[in-house]
Amino acid sequence: MSLRIGVFICHCGTNIGGTVNVPEVVKYAATLPDVVHTEGNLYTCSEDGLSSIRNQIKEHYLNRVVVASCTPRTHEPLFKKNCELAGLNKYLFEFVNLREHCSWVHMTQQDDATDKAKDLVRMGVAKVSLLTPEEDLSTEVLPSSLIIGGGISGLSAALTLANQGYHVELLEKSARLGGLLRDVNRVFPSNVPTSDLIDPLIHSVLKHDNISVHFEAELLDIKGFIGNFTAAIRENGGTGELKIGTIIVAIGANELKPEGMFGYHLFKNVMTQLEFEQQYRGDYNGLKDVVMINCVGARTDEMPYCGRFCCITAMKNAILLKEANPEAEVTILQRDIMAFGKAFEEYYQKAMQVGVRFVRYTVDRLPEIEGVGDAANKVKVYHELMGRDLELNADAVILTTPLVPAEDNQTLSRMMKIPVGNEGFFMEAHQKLRPVEFPADGIYIAGCARYPTEIVECISQGYAAAAKAAAPMSQGRVVTEAFISKVNPLSCSSCGRCVEICPFGAVDWVEFRFSPEITREVATVNPTECKGCGLCVASCLSNAIQLKGFTDEEILAMVGTTIAGHEFTL
Amino acid sequence: MQFTDIKTVIRHSIQKNNLNFCLECGKCSAVCPMLDFYGEYEYQRSPRGVVERLSLAPEDIEEEEALWYCLTCQECTFFCPSGVDFQSFMMELRELLLQRGHKKYAVFCHVCGEYLMPKKEFEYLQKDPDNGKHLGDLLAVCPRCKKTGYAEVLHRVAPLYKRIKKV
What we know:
The structure holds two protein chains of two kinds.
Chain A: E1 5-10, H1 22-29, E2 35-41, H2 47-59, E3 64-69, H3 72-85, E4 93-97, H4 99-103, H5 110-128, E5 137-140, E6 144-148, H6 152-163, E7 167-171, E8 186-187, E9 192-193, H7 194-207, E10 211-214, E11 218-225, E12 228-235, E13 238-244, E14 246-249, E15 253-255, E16 270-272, H8 273-279, E17 289-293, H9 310-324, E18 329-334, H10 344-353, E19 357-360, E20 368-372, E21 375-383, E22 388-393, E23 396-399, E24 403-405, H11 408-416, E25 443-445, H12 455-475, E26 477-480, E27 485-487, H13 497-501, E28 507-513, E29 519-525, H14 535-539, E30 545-547, H15 552-562
Helix pairs in contact in A: 1-5, 2-3, 5-15, 6-7, 6-12, 9-10
Chain B: H1 6-16, H2 27-31, H3 34-37, H4 47-56, H5 75-79, H6 86-99, E1 106-107, E2 117-118, H7 119-127, H8 132-140, H9 143-147, H10 151-166
């Protein structure tokens, strides 16, 4: 079937028409090879313009369409859908940007702009003649989700998904649900016991029909892609396999144990906040002089980040100490106070009101712990403004340490090809716009595995990840665009550059049989995971990868046609 | 105020006048007129320094000369973002110290008959020849008398305060 190309050139009001001589470009386009119809529209994106495209496709039997107007970022989907409505495959459409790429940047050179517009339209026509019809890819999504981690984030996500009717496989490393929160005594700012908060949640998870909880389970491997993951797990001494559609990573974090700092382990009464809460659970009466040191192991060269809520944790324990024994002298040695979020500033005020003393220390002269035998009894801190050391009595010294990434982060990162940041926490797809997603489809993140996160945020992130995971499962299918990369196994040299460079983990090794005797591992692109970014194409030294819709042939045809009389071939 | 233990009384006063809420921002020290008044003004004698030291170690109060530097002008109280009432705290402490017989840094007031006039201020004004004509008025009015309404005297003293602040 011969090519029948229709070219539609938009004035975009005066945006393009005011600079580019559109009628001249329309006249020129008609002279290009295989172009059977050309027209100029005031606004091609208006209903008039769109219906004109549909009518001309039918009237002139157009089998390729070029629209030269604004940016594909906003309008390409509209025109593609319009072609589909008229019965034309949407991948036989090409977009030429005459506004951002021409009229707006050459407003003062109108004649040259018109010439450039002709060049751009010629390039578009050259490319569109090489396009082939493609089909969108679609895969089924299993309506079940794997949640790794049974802490507050994982529990919130599990309940949300289960209540929406999806099956949830909840993987817990230890023998009990609740995560790090189980070791916490009370929660700020209301100071209610943690069990009040978490026990009802655990109870509803355990009795929910849609949730199967795997205790003391270990994740061995994960294979597959969105919709069809296969997880190999070990539990009760045996191994098993789970088939799931989506994954939520909620493995949490650990409290830093400040080995070798401030007499930790040297003195019996020097402990971390969490150890203090476990040791004095519910009974704070025995202590009179307590010194807390904030920012231990945080905001240093090795650990540059702030633990975010450790200040509030220190204040919570200080307030509880003061409430149990108003005579107690509680001093918090701080570097800065982080009291963000709802009601936290008020909590800080409350701490000051009950008489908790805050003393600032400096990094160059850290507080010193002195003790007799295995018990610390004095803390010396340099007060910068007073210019002298203060000596504080101490029955107990409590070190406020930040959360550090769990050791499993690296293993999971390799297993699922999900990125880990400098600090060792998981990195989301976009800091602001995609806070609970990974670049790879179908894998989501919630809670402290991403960054030290307080309880309210953990729960919100659990809900958010559940909502994100529910979206593909409720659709039942995921549809991906046909413009994806494809590896030619015969040219592939198995160098592995594309496997490393793919940000979505879509390129993987596969055994390829070249002849009955010869097999070799070559790269292959998983069509469901590929986003069509083209990084693998650019990285391939053997020219073995082509991105549909942007093949070398098409690009070189565009380049060749800009230089009159030249033709580039492969 | 019935006092048993000086430490408890000071704790109470710290609580009452919001001294716990000090954020160490230093606004009080920036607006304190005594910065220009005394040559040896420093952190230790600024409202911020006094607050910080007394809240950390209230037992040191008896030797605290800095208590007697304050003019009780209330500038710091006005500017404090946390609502620390430094002036009231100062007055309470002075009264407490006088009750306990610590008159080392105080001068006898001829109007009310109590030792509330800070010696430091007194000595400075005596040395300054420009203050001669107001000296009698100022010295006649201790901070407590000012509070209990000697409007007429205050009116005459006011220009002198303005001059002090301007310097």
